[in-house]
Design brief:
By secondary structure, this protein is an alpha+beta fold. The protein folds into three domains: about 260 residues, 3-Layer(aba) Sandwich (Rossmann fold); about 110 residues, no CATH class; about 80 residues, no CATH class. About 25% of the residues lie in helices and about 20% in strands. It has 13 helices and 21 strands. Strands 2-3-1-12-13-14-18-19 form an eight-stranded mixed β-sheet, with helices on both faces. Strand 15 and strand 16 form a beta hairpin. The longest helix is centred in the last third of the chain and has 20 residues. The termini are far apart. This is Phage tail sheath subtilisin-like domain-containing protein. It holds the Pfam family Phage_sheath_1.
Length: about 525
């Protein structure tokens, strides 16, 4: 801001430096889409721990692989995640219907989300005891003492430890503790679906089964649950996998099957790959349960995934791990959750440019693999872009491959390797989010210089961390934004062109050791 000069003397003003700091986005925010015991549907919910997943979505569930995949993710180093619960019911109209509902002494309550878990809800209603304390509370709220009541909500089977939450001094009349407002901002176990009664509810214990409509668990997930037909749907409604478009950020996508030991509908993978290409994310493809080392290649080629698979990778075979819901019986599970955790752990320790594979990429929680591969069998799959999981005697079960779905030797794609592709996606997302300040700025050399300085400083920091190949910055990266990239014709159309190049580090996939015999000679 210009200073008005009115008197003789010294004037001081602050001048902005013009520096725009670029901050890298998170590289391992994993999205999980599938069915769960409870929780909001068709809405991306961010979580940061498995305990949070248990509170909001019910934890492990026999009828879904989602909980197992999320648990594997956090066991292997996962941090941030986004959960989208699918209600199911595309084949069964009654499945995933309205939440369970009860009449609690005149007050209608409803389970916060769909599912049979709501059938086990139990509510205690008690009236506030008359006395000085109750009168003081009523006076602060501006209501009568006989308007106050207490609500205790319990969930889960009676034979097991039950979660419980209590809400004291509620009212059904206007006030700071009006019951519908209080329940709306609580842990969302129950809600008030309609209007409030004229008087407080009668005291007593109420259950869904004794006074209400029961809920139902989700049906088997089919293709239409993941990718609903667009006909008749409002344009702003995003359901199924497309609900992730409302997520602020996700960089890895996992699609655990509806049945822990089952498969995802084959047609879903192509749609998921297209979504990842649009959202700059990386898809982890799980192998079908019945595919063997001799058929997995045919399955992959038959789905057309290799032709558009820069943003995805497949990991074979499935993991074997203990199932806590089946007396710790060892069963096969999809590996995507564990692999996503390994990616998050590797990103945190080494950076997104380090391949999430090798002896450091051990899988925690796995007791073995559904198929044991030899070096020769691994060698048959690796040239076709199929990443293998291996078990070695000294290091246990590890990720032993780092190729994208376009990683077949015959394809010769420039994004053959997972870390190269994920680094490119990281750079794209970071620059997209950090260059919005450029919009509507004067399109001339001062702006171009600022852009070069900001992006150059960001890439230089990555270079110092070892993200690029090359011994000097000139060898490692370049940023171009000048009169050559942005011509007068571009300026007239309001366009500024920025060209960023980088030399990626590629993993040492094959280590060749040559041994030569040295003949001793006389001195």
């Amino acid at each position: 801001m210009a200073v008005t000069l009115t008197y003789p003397g010294v004037y001081v003003q602050e001048v902005p430096s013009g520096n725009r700091t670029i901050t890298g986005v998170a590289t391992a925010v994993t999205a999980f889409v599938g069915s769960a015991l409870r929780g909001p549907v068709h809405r991306p919910v961010p979580i940061s721990s498995y305990a949070q997943f248990e509170r909001q979505f019910g934890g492990l569930w026999r009828n879904s692989g989602l909980g197992y995949a999320v648990q594997d993710y956090y066991l292997n180093g996962g941090n941030l995640a986004v959960i989208v619960r699918l209600p199911g019911g595309a084949e069964d109209e009654e499945a995933g219907a309205a939440p369970a509902r009860m009449d609690a002494g005149g007050l209608t309550l409803e389970a916060a989300t769909r599912g049979a878990w709501g059938d086990l809800l139990e509510v205690d209603v008690a009236h506030a005891t008359a006395g000085p304390e109750a009168e003081a509370v009523a006076e602060r709220q501006g209501v009568a003492v006989d308007a106050l009541f207490h609500l205790t909500v319990r969930e889960g089977p009676r034979a097991e430890p039950r979660q419980q939450e209590s809400h004291l001094n509620l009212t059904v009349v206007d006030g700071p503790r009006q019951v519908d407002d209080v329940l709306r901002i609580s842990d969302l176990v129950v809600t008030v679906p309609g209007g409030l009664p004229g008087t407080r509810p009668a005291p007593g214990t109420y259950t869904v089964r004794s006074a209400g409509s029961t809920g139902r668990d989700t049906g088997k997930l089919v293709f239409a649950d993941y990718v609903p037909p667009s006909a008749g749907q409002p344009a702003e409604e995003k359901v199924g996998i497309d609900a992730l478009r409302d997520a602020d950020l996700f960089t890895i996508l996992c699609l655990p099957p509806g049945d822990p030991g089952g498969d995802l509908p084959d047609e879903v993978w192509a749609h998921a790959l297209a979504l990842c290409a649009e959202e700059r994310a990386f898809l982890l493809v799980d192998p079908p349960a019945d595919e063997s080392r001799t058929t997995i290649r045919t399955w992959l080629e038959g789905r057309g995934l290799t032709s558009r698979g820069r943003n995805g990778g497949i990991y074979f075979p499935r993991l074997r791990r203990a199932d806590p819901l089946r007396d710790n019986a060892v069963r096969p599970f999809v590996p995507s959750g564990a692999v996503a955790g390994v990616m998050a752990r590797t990103d945190s320790a080494r950076g997104v440019w380090k391949a999430p594979a090798g002896t450091e990429a051990g899988i925690t929680g796995a007791t073995g693999l559904a198929v044991t591969l030899t070096d020769g069998e691994n060698g048959d799959l690796n040239p076709f872009g199929i990443n293998c999981l291996r078990t070695f005697r000294t290091v246990g079960t590890v990720v032993w491959g780092a190729r994208t779905l376009r990683g077949a030797d015959l394809v010769a794609d420039e994004y053959k390797y997972v870390p190269v592709r994920r680094l490119a996606l990281f750079l794209e997302e970071t620059l997209w989010r950090n260059l919005h300040w450029v919009v509507f700025e004067p399109n001339d050399e001062p702006l171009w210089a600022q852009i070069r300085a900001s992006i150059g400083a960001f890439l230089q920091d990555l270079f110092r961390q070892g993200a690029f190949q090359g011994s000097t910055p000139r060898d490692a990266y370049f940023v171009r934004c000048d009169a050559e990239t942005t011509t007068q014709y571009d300026i007239d159309r309001g366009i500024v062109n920025i060209v960023v190049g980088f030399a990626p580090l590629k993993p040492a996939e094959f280590v060749v050791v040559s041994i030569q015999q040295k003949t001793a000679t006389a001195s």
